[in-house]
Amino acid sequence: MTTTPTPVESGAAPSLIATLPGAAYTDPGVFAREQERIFESLWFCAVRSADLPAPGAFRTVTVGRESVLVTRNRKGGLRAFLNVCRHRGARLCTEESGEVRRTLQCPYHAWTYDLDGKLVAAPNLVKMPDVDRVAYGLRSVALREWLGYAWVCLAEEPPSFEETVMGAAVERLGDAASIERYRTGELALGRRVTYDVRANWKLIVENFMECYHCATIHPELTEILPEFAEGFAAQYYVGHGAEFAPEARGFTVDGSAGHGRLPSLAEEQDRRYYAITVKPTVFVNLVPDHVILHRMFPLAVDRTVVECDWLYAPETVAGGADLSKSVELFHRVNVQDFAACERTQPGMSSRVYRAGGVLVPSEHHIGAFHRWVTERLA
Ligand code: FES
Ligand code: FE
């Protein structure tokens, strides 16, 4: 795979193509449509499965305009429900996470549900024999597990998980085996950092998709991945991973050695960085000794919470390895990227950006993302 782009020949496509208009990043009406047609209609990466370690553990997450409750049931499986009591609509769990013994009880009138959502008790329920305990159970939400995360979908008929979620990795890497070799679902959490970013979620996606900014704002990253200084993101070419600098011993902030190599990687995956955007809200970064997974939670038109997990071989984490140099590299990249997004957000409401900005050739693939958003909202 080449690392230099095909030059634009005279008479070919123009160098500059249009972005979305500024209002796409500032209009609450657009954001409301995105919640309905994107976050509440597609598979949404909600929680890390291991964050619910045992039966009775639960987590609540915001998906679009809904609160979703994810539980681990008695059999050890994950289930997802709308976090709304079927009696009079009180929010069942108000905590972000917790653990119950066997049941979830509504704090209002004490309707009580088991971990599969079935209504199992309520004051005077025995005197209401006609009440169907399944029909009045919690409203369940589709859930799939992949890469060690629970992905939920609020749609009545969820789109194909294989096509819309796993397909993103195949499209990016060229085949399904390439991502499977990282065995992401078996890795352990080394570090988690949560970033509260004052920017529209699309600015964060667009930023992740391009590397035109790498030379300007990512000095540490371009030291390790010199080709990024040329401005072409790894996501520009199918199957291409950016090669480490010859002097870099690992994917660390100072180029010092990392933590070995995940055991089942192919030879050609060593000393390379791959990035995948799983629309709408997930970024997966693959390096030889760890996986960095970003989950976005768009909370408002100009506010997105990003949860970033650094995942390593279980023995690396259990052995108490010093992960600081390893984590610091992408933490800096995150801080640099999110600062750029926050710097861009105010410009979106400027009159000069009413019709939008432009994409240079190394960013033209972002146009496909814009078309995707536009089609979803049409
Ligand atoms: Fe939940 Fe009444 S609203 S028990
Ligand atoms: Fe960046």
Q: Helicity, in percent?
A: 10-25%
* Ligands and ions found: FE2/S2 (inorganic) cluster, fe (iii) ion
Broad shape: globular
The total domain count is 2
The largest sheet is: 7 strands, antiparallel
Fourth-tier CATH superfamily name of the largest domain:
Naphthalene 1,2-dioxygenase Alpha Subunit, Chain A, domain 1
The topology string of helices and strands comes to EHEEEEEEEEEEHHEHHHEEEEEHHEH
Rounded to the nearest angstrom, the distance between the terminal CA atoms is 36 Å
Walk me through this protein's architecture.
With 378 residues, the protein is of the alpha+beta class. It folds into 2 domains: 44-153, Rieske [2Fe-2S] iron-sulphur domain (Rieske Iron-sulfur Protein, 3-layer Sandwich); 174-377, Naphthalene 1,2-dioxygenase Alpha Subunit, Chain A, domain 1. It is built from 9 helices and 18 strands. The protein has a 7-stranded antiparallel β-sheet, with no helix packed on it. Strand 8 (112-114) and strand 9 form a beta hairpin. Helix 4 (201-209) crosses helix 8. The radius of gyration is 22 Å and the shape is globular. It binds FE2/S2 (inorganic) cluster and fe (iii) ion. FE2/S2 (inorganic) cluster binds next to loops.
